[in-house]
Amino acid sequence: MPSAQPDIFTPFTLGGGAIELKHRVVMAPLTRNRGTKSEKHDRTWIANDLMRHYYEERATDGGMLISEATPVSLEASGMPGVPGTFTDEQLESWKPVTAAVKAKGGVFFAQLWHQGRNTASVLTGSRIVSASDVPITDAKFGWRGLNPKPFEAPHALTIDEVRATQDDFARAAGRAREAGFDGVELHAANGYLFDQFHHTNVNLRDDIYGGSIENRNRFTLETVDKVIAAVGADRVGVRLAPFGMFNQVRGEQRQEQWTALCEELGKKGLAYVHFIEPRFDELQSEAEKLANLDANNPLASLEVSLRPYREALGPSTPVIAAGNYNGSNMNDGLGAEHDLVAFGRYFCSNEDLVERLRTGAPLWHYNRSRFYGPFPDNEIGYTVHPERKTHKPGERIVFEGEVLKF
Ligand SMILES: Cc1cc2nc3c(=O)[nH]c(=O)nc-3n(C[C@H](O)[C@H](O)[C@H](O)COP(=O)(O)O)c2cc1C
Predict the structure, then answer these.
(1) Which residues contact 148 (CB under 8 A, 6 or more apart)?
(2) 276 lines ligand 1 (CB under 6 A)
(3) Is the dihedral of CA 247, 344, 35, 167 positive or negative?
(4) Which whole-number Å values give the CA distances from 278 to 34, 220, 265, in the listed order?
(5) What is the set of domains in the chain, with CATH numbers?
(6) pLDDT digits 0-9 by tens, 227-250
(7) In a 10 Å sphere around its CB, with 0-12 CB exposed, 13-18 middle and 19+ buried, how is residue 158 labelled?
(8) Does ligand 1 lie within 6 Å of residue 343's CB atom?
(9) Catalytic residue ranges
(10) Using one digit for the tens of pLDDT, what is the confidence trace for 337-383?
């Protein structure tokens, strides 16, 4: 259990004693699209030696890493270069990666992903699916090598298909454990399939999976139960974004909905729940996001803090917080509001981030244009950093060719 006033280098135990961490710096899940295209299965990717090197560099003794999001089926997939957790070939490809992290004493969870409506049939090989047939309308779907096109209207999953999708998560969790991961994290944040069930503007269902807070949370809670049945509660984490707006989610009744969700999750004995801080957004700066939480109608009544959700979970579920943490604020709220801190972008640019945070050494700034592959030179901005610049919090450094707003 946490000591009275822990700092980020105080040890912590997860999963009812099953997992001992020597510090509280967690590598956040980071999609980097550096996988290798499978020659066996169309539209699938596998992990490779470059990825092994990348994760191994970031592993520390008693430190926790969460993998990039890994699709649980072809239907769940939505990006080139992302190795999944649904074929035997993928399972085998992850083994050297998990072994390398383990050899350094690291703890490694696999994030399990279903993009729902945020994909295209050219990538799933069939239709795209969601809670309801509501497409994303304010953007186009495109990727390196794919021409941007308007999002397709998704097929609304039938009840049988909902259950089959939940089973895909349970199967993928079992495969992840077989591949050597210590546990799995369900990606129930950032506007992907779980969130498409959570949000009132995307979930228009009138069956047991829509129409009320309880029903909108049902898909997530049932999936959590199935994944727990497959691998055990102490090996399961869940990622949530009660303040998320990414991928056009604009649900109402958020505080009530995520509080109810956390009250239920708190009964399950999970390894942890992982929240994204309200101040963080994929497309807005911290100032813009906070201004939007003030002014934006569906969110206006919210307490802008993770505190209600921590309270709803109760004291026995560990909490990870992520979003705009750095060397200066990494101890803020530790022990009280959350137990562990996940770093995303700084782990892209600092393979030795844990040591830099420990010694107070300056952090290398991240190069957004190299976040997401695939590239012909996949190692650049991944394991090789030819043009590094240090970064002071708040300072904006623009790299030549920087294309994404992230
Ligand atoms: C390149 C990149 C890829 C990301 N991929 C994922 C992902 O696969 N799954 C996920 O839950 N979040 C993903 N995120 C969000 C991060 O996990 C994290 O929540 C976010 O970057 C905020 O943390 P930071 O301020 O420390 O970067 C990604 C972020 C970045 C920058």
Answers:
(1) 140, 141, 142
(2) yes
(3) negative
(4) 29, 21, 20
(5) 12-391 (3.20.20.70)
(6) 999 999 999 999 999 999 889 998
(7) exposed
(8) yes
(9) 192
(10) 999 999 999 999 999 999 999 999 999 999 888 999 999 999 999 99
